[in-house]
Design goal:
Blueprint (H helix, E strand, L loop, with lengths): L1 H5 L3 E2 L2 E5 L12 E10 L2 E15 L2 E11 L9 H28 L5 E11 L5 E9 L8 H7 L4 H10 L1 E4 L5 E4 L20 E7 L5 E6 L1 H8 L4 E6 L9 E2 L10 E7 L2 H14 L4 E5 L1
Antiparallel strand pairs: 1-2, 3-4, 3-6, 4-5, 5-10, 6-7, 8-9, 10-14, 11-13, 11-15, 12-14
Length: 291
């Protein structure tokens, strides 16, 4: 069934292309992460790490609910010792991801430019984590990540790419290659860390629709409630979900989302409170005349 569904289907982001082959992969159990990187002459730096929140919905096993910036800030959680433990665990996880993905890019001989990769972290019986590669794409992250990374980290992969390719270079007295930090350069490559630090919680929330039929009602009150939340930066509901009389379909993958919500907030408790409320409101957003 999986082969039949995938083979001949439209390639995501390329409507003129279809899948002519299907790759069979071992099923990996664990938390999935997306990693955006930029490389300069073989030196990889992470622009952002994202943690997926995927859940079963509408008969599909893995539906996007959120793409959250990782690691989250733990400011706002009551137990200070718990915060320290979580932050230490996050640092370890980031280092495992960085080292593994660097080895992957070296094996693929990717020396320059952007990649968007996905890795699943599988936990063994002794509690240690080991990464499993899902994919490496030589492209940017296919979402509007700029407001989230600018607010959550302070810079973004596009500016990193410019620094990698167009930053001036000179060789010092020790024959070490350096980027020139001149006034025309937005970022200095040499000053960017290999692994970024987060300063705010950030997420792209995917609006999941469970209704099938002709749209007859939009819950504007719920949408206004989402819009007024402390953590919400911006939102969009896609056009077909705003036209009364239009047929809408349940969300089963990222291509069938009903829209998105961008979230940013420094306080983890407020951020998670708002996120959980958005998820709670999702089933109420649309009403239909059922087929």
């Amino acid at each position: 069934d999986a082969f039949r569904i995938i083979h001949g289907s439209t390639v995501f982001g390329s409507p003129g292309q279809t899948h002519e082959s299907v790759l069979v992969q071992e099923f990996a159990v664990g938390q999935e992460f997306a990693i955006d990187t930029v490389s300069r002459n073989g030196h990889m730096k992470i622009a952002a790490i994202w943690q997926y929140d995927k859940r079963p919905a509408n008969g599909a096993p893995f539906v996007y609910y959120a793409t959250k910036l990782y690691p989250p800030l733990h400011h706002g959680l009551e137990d200070a010792s718990s915060q320290d433990d979580k932050e230490n665990d996050n640092v370890d996880m980031q280092r495992i991801i960085y080292d593994y993905l660097r080895d992957c890019l070296e094996a693929l001989d990717i020396q320059w430019g952007m990649t968007h990769s996905e890795v699943i972290m599988t936990q063994s019986s002794d509690g240690t984590f080991s990464p499993r590669l899902v994919e490496v794409n030589c492209r940017q992250h296919n979402m509007n990540f700029l407001p989230l990374t600018m607010g959550g980290i302070g810079y973004n992969s596009l500016d990193m790419l410019l620094a990698a390719y167009f930053g001036g270079m000179h060789i010092d007295e020790k024959d070490v290659l350096h980027t020139v930090d001149d006034s025309d350069e937005g970022l200095n490559w040499d000053l960017l860390p290999d692994i970024p630090s987060t300063r705010m919680n950030a997420a792209m929330v995917h609006l999941v629709n469970e209704k099938y039929g002709t749209l007859k009602y939009i819950n504007e009150e719920a949408l206004y409630e989402i819009q007024d939340m402390e953590s919400v930066w911006d939102l969009e509901v896609y056009g077909q979900f705003l036209e009364i009389g239009c047929e809408i379909m349940p969300t089963v993958d990222i291509k069938t989302d009903a829209g998105w919500v961008q979230m940013l907030h420094p306080d983890r408790e407020i951020f998670e409170r708002d996120y959980n409320r958005i998820v709670e409101l999702m089933p109420t957003l649309f009403q239909v005349d059922e087929q």
